[in-house]
Amino acid sequence: MVSTTLTTLAVGLAGGLITGISPCILPILPLVLAVSGAPGEERSRARPWLIIAGLVTSFTAVTLFATTALNALHLPGDLVWKVGLGLLVLVGLGMIFPKVQELLEWPFLKLPKAGGLQAKVRDKGGFLVGLALGVVFVPCAGPVLAAISVAGATGHVDAHILVLCLSFAVGVAVPLLIFALGGEQIGRRVSFFQSHQRGVRLTSGFLVIAMAGAIATGAPAWLQQKLPSLSQPEVQAASASSGAVPEFAGLTGWFNTDTPVDPRTNGKVTLIDFWAYACINCQRNNVHIAKLYDTYKDYGLEVVGIHAPEYPFERESSNVRRAAAEQSIAYPVAQDNDFATWRAFGNQYWPAHYLVDAQGQLRGSHAGEGDYAETEHQIRSLLQERDPQVRLPTPVESTEAAVGAADRNPETYLGTDRARYFDNPAAEYVDGTHSFTAVTPRQGRYALGGEWTLAGQPITAGRDATVDLAYHAAWVQVVVAGRGTITVSDGDTTQEIPVTEDGTIDLLRGDAAREGTLHLAVTPGVELFSFTFG
């Protein structure tokens, strides 16, 4: 099963290709050309391929070692991610400004140079030559290696990291293989490459910085989340409600259990629940899932929460653990940050659950909230099928438990990628910093006032930033990031809410749905992602 992601391949291959075509390959080109042209026609044909195989092996080993050393430090995941993005930007700046690259390469200058190794490896086997090239190439590839190692770190050396290392090594190897196969003919064109190296450096630098920007704004994750719908025919069998349950893939950060859970072999009835902790639909759903687990866990039911992040801050394991405790989740949870298990199931929704019988066969599925009584009925049937002698407790769900979507606003995204319910002029609601004139929103919509910086996912408050939200709900939340305050007024009362951590904040919570308008005054720097309603 392939458990790689678009992000892994994009970062690895792009980083490797940019390194492989950058001007820093010039010092080792004489070595590549020399060893590729060894005597003997048969040997010459195979030798370049053996050299590149050795290079890929060497690069992969170096990167795995670097990643293992990094993970041994047990740094917070969001800090590691931010440092990786910063390194990628520095690498891009180094390609644009030679002085910056000199500073980045300084720690690697003590490593072996191409000239010293050339005589030693000229007559050796091609594979050994490739291993040596992997060491020779570190002085110029070192900063990029460090950057992708940090940016791609997941906390474990797993299939994700291995694919990242291999894709980077292959990206580096492709241009060098072309040089090796071309031999002297390409060697005669190196002078042309040297004369145009400034343009190559600039282009490569801007590409690296653009790649860092795409990762920072969540573009690969957005595409990744859309991927199942593009490949639906391929995964339809896995997402159906019958057949063998797909194998879990790429899961990390298990908690509430001593060992990972495998629904194919655990011998229990298993409910697999896909969720994201800042999703209000998931929060409401989790109340019922937790109730079912607490009721039936002693009768053969297992629940596994697969946490697939919708926002960048939901990737951090400490945030997921904190949210699970706040939402009274006692069943096993694992993080699916790369959406590998999400894709294996052909899933497309938060929340969604899949029911597996004691023999590891899929027996039912449900997307979204509601139908809790039906889910409980299916669980009870599978438990009785597992053990006909079991005496089950009284059902805890009723047909009235589902929440009607007509009683509340739809989930309202604020970033430009998915914004629909704004009452500001459409020509102004685009990426960038804008000063909005406050208007009274229509029912079910919102309007910005003051200065806001709009981006694909979040909008960031500036001077005198306000939001007016016309709601119909009993429960109103906002998904936030950053630090500051939000002052909320409903016309009768005013409260100041501190923003001290990334996640969801209750703006209003009552027993019954009602209509009204909330006025939010947001301090500069606070990011808003979406409004959710219950």
TrEMBL record:
Membrane topology: Multi-pass membrane protein
Molecular function terms, GO-annotated: antioxidant activity; oxidoreductase activity
GO annotation terms (biological process): cytochrome complex assembly
Subcellular location: Cell membrane
GO CC aspect terms: plasma membrane
Principal location: membrane
Protein name: Redoxin domain-containing protein
Species annotation: Corynebacterium phoceense
Organismal lineage: Bacteria, Bacillati, Actinomycetota, Actinomycetes, Mycobacteriales
